[in-house]
Amino acid sequence: MSVNTKKIWISALIFGLIATGILYFSILSKNKQDPPPVEEIVEEEPIVEEERVVTENTLIPITEGKRAMSLQVSVVQGVSGFIKPGSLVDVVAVLNPSEEEFKYTAGQHDSAALLLQNIKVLAIGHSADLPEEAKRYETVTLEVTPREGLLLGFAIRDENQIYLTLRSEGDSSIETETTHIHEDELHKGVFKP
């Protein structure tokens, strides 16, 4: 091989390396200037909190002239969770005489009264309750007249207990005779005098 051929090969090799380097750096610098490719933006479904139970803990509209009044109830007092908004209930108050009443009134014992009858339930539970919480309600909101609200307010004070009795659908009867019972009536025939 002649010296000229060697020079041509070496020159071609050097020229090829330089050209490759220039091409490499031009492509690399172009990639640095271009922003990264935009990923396709997928619209996600909005995150929705668990829906509130409309039939379980939403307040039914209050009839004009009436008021909403809430009572705290236990499972037993609240008819084991069977009450729903729109149900009709009677309110039974078990009244305990105070120590003063018991001391100064001979023979004063506990009594029970059918305090309110045919009362519409406006809501159960708390307005922020989720479906599972609403099924285990601890409050019942009733629709009452102002006077019924006063009666109920007196009945729930002190250590008196309030029980709700659930009416069957369509039952709007009003009891006029046996609306109060004294503890002594339960003992008749059980205890000998």
Structure in words:
It is a single chain. With 193 residues, this protein is of the alpha+beta class. The protein has a domain at 67-187. Helix content is 31%, strand content 22%. It is built from 6 helices and 6 strands; from the N terminus they run ααββαβαβαββα. Strands 1, 2, 3, 4, 5 and 6 form a 6-stranded antiparallel β-sheet that branches. The model is unreliable at 49-55 (pLDDT under 50). Pfam families: RcpC. Keywords: Membrane, Transmembrane, Transmembrane helix. The chain crosses the membrane at residues 7-27. Residues 62-166 form the Flp pilus assembly protein RcpC/CpaB domain.
Annotation, overall tally of beta strands: 6
Terminal-residue CA separation: 143 Å
Question: Portion of residues in helices?
Answer: 25-40%
Judging from the principal axes of the Cα atoms, what is the shape? rod-shaped
The secondary-structure element order is HHEEHEHEHEEH
Strand content: 15-25%
Q: Major sheet, described briefly?
A: 6 strands, antiparallel
Structural class: alpha+beta
Mean pLDDT: 76
Rg: 41 Å
Number of helices: 6
Contiguous low-pLDDT stretches (5 residues minimum) are 49-55
